[in-house]
Amino acid sequence: MAEIKCTKCGAPIAFDSGDKFAKCKYCDTQIFIDKSGAGFFYIMPYFIDQANAQGIFKRWTAGSLMARDLEATARIISFKQQYFPVYLFKRDVDGKEKVQVEPARSTTLPGLHSLKVPAGDIKIFDQNYDAGGIELLKPDIDMAAYLPQLPGTAKEQALVFFPLWTIQYEYKGRKYDAVIDGSSGEVFSTDYPTRKAAPYFIIAAIAFIAFLIEGLIGVLLWPVGFACGGALALVTIPVVFIAAYTIVRRF
Q1: Which residues contact 239 (CB under 8 A, 6 or more apart)?
Q2: What residues form the membrane-spanning segments (predicted)?
């Protein structure tokens, strides 16, 4: 058995070498144990409830980059809460405090590498905090892996459980995943159905060629050609507008 001091009351806490977490028997403070030492163990409450999270997801599926019918046809398979572990590093860099957040668990979502943890919103995770039975994902990355690349000197380092809404949905027979930050409402997703770009490029290319030909007619057959080119342009403009409107509506 090894022993550390409680970061809150200073009492000794015994733990086995493989333990990740320990609890002070005097003040009930839970301690996160890493190769780099022991630190506080924080949790951030949910500020986005399920109704708001569902509304955020609905608005996200209606975004300008999404597939045209995604909002109407996406079928939600699962919608659940999870606490994702991140490391909070407070560093002294040239006399100024800098805060850096890094994931404590492997993830492919780029947004989880840049989460913002407002200092006033996090709570010490002790016996007084009720997580409501929400799943806490376990860290699988050691805090020590980040230490060599951090600037300045350490002021505080801690494990923070970050609130997420994790969503799995189906679109045209394929399953996708998305995550909503339970504190800010920001949506993260690496793979999602996008709007088809080919029709836009095709109509743009056709419009460019048509206007180029009309311009050449106007220049090469001056002055009669100028009138012809102008007349053709007056016909081409509404055609291009109608075609573009149809594409926006359908794709």
Answers
A1: none
A2: 200-224, 230-248
What gap in Å lies between CA 43 and CA 122, rounded to an integer?
Answer: 6
Q: Which two tokens stand for residue 112?
A: 């989880």
Question: Distance between CA atoms of 4 and 95, rounded to whole angstroms?
Answer: 29
DSSP string, 59-84: HHHTSTTB-TTHHHH-EEEEEEEEEE
Helix (H, G, I), strand (E, B) or coil at 170: strand
Q: Who's near 133: CB < 8 A, 6+ residues apart?
A: none
Q: 3-state secondary structure string, 86-113?
A: EEEEEEEECCEEEEEEEECCCCCCHHHH
Residues 65-105 have pLDDT tens digits of 888 889 999 999 999 999 999 988 888 999 998 888 889 99
d(CA 1, CA 243): 74
Q: Where are the alpha helices (DSSP H) in the chain?
A: 50-61, 70-73, 198-220, 224-250
Instruction: Give the dihedral of Cα atoms 211, 213, 215, 217; nearest 10 deg.
Output: -150
